[in-house]
Amino acid sequence: MSAPSAYPIKGIFFFLSNWILIRKIIFVLFLTLVVALLAIFLTFGFLLSLQANALIVAGCPVWLAWTVSVIFCILEAGVITIIFYLIITPIWQDALFDEVLKLKGLGYVLEKQKNTSEGCCRGFCSGISAMYTIVVVQIIALIITMPLHAIPLFGTLIYCYINGWVMAWGHQIHYHVEIKEWSAKQSLKFAWKNRGDYSMFGFVAVALELIPIANLVFLWTNVVGAALWTADIILDEQKLLSREDLTDGRAESSSYQAAQRMDGSNKT
């Protein structure tokens, strides 16, 4: 299995090579494009001169003040687009995530959601509740850490790392709660225990989403990347269980994603 940081990049290629994925989110993609353009217009139209003048008054050289202000506006437009995306698109994200699993031949994993109407309803309600809880956490984290961009390069790197873990967890909560039927607490515990891998995935994903205009696509390819990561986890679990069946014993797993370890480590 690839390193977690590789999956956001894999998601780009997988998304662009499968028209069925693009078709699923074409409407909301257009809507996000409109918001992104408005965000760029508002930040450059109203905030650019304000920020530049504030920096000049603070003693910053004129050329540097305007350069930094342009960078700030680009980042601010990206953050505004991300916040809109977080609020409006969770249902489309789940549909896209599930479609990737189907394309990877793992559609049967989704079937247990449909076994009973009661289980389906409970899983859906739990998933929606957990999803929007994470949305709130993500938005708060984005706003609180935004001043880090004032530190050239290193501030943005720290910003990506801090928000990366939250983003990665947000992309996996659908699988944890609605498919594996974990509680939100179990999901959080698992995500925190494996925060290294989650931060690796999220660091790259957040960095991609800070790129204006292109982030309209990267917002979705990151979901695809998360689903590809999950698909590889499931396939690794199957290989492990197959080896156990063949040897009629208990195989030791070096992967934290092994199904039995995942379930066992999250019992409360």
From TrEMBL:
Topology in the lipid bilayer: Multi-pass membrane protein
Keywords, sorted A to Z: Membrane, Transmembrane, Transmembrane helix
Compartment(s): Membrane
TM annotation in the entry: 25-50, 62-88, 123-144, 150-170, 198-220
Any matching Pfam family: EI24
InterPro entries referenced in this protein's UniProt entry, alphabetically: CysZ/EI24 (IPR059112), Spore_wall_assembly (IPR052786)
Lineage: superkingdom: Eukaryota
Protein name per Swiss-Prot or TrEMBL: Uncharacterized protein
Organism annotation: Rhizophagus irregularis
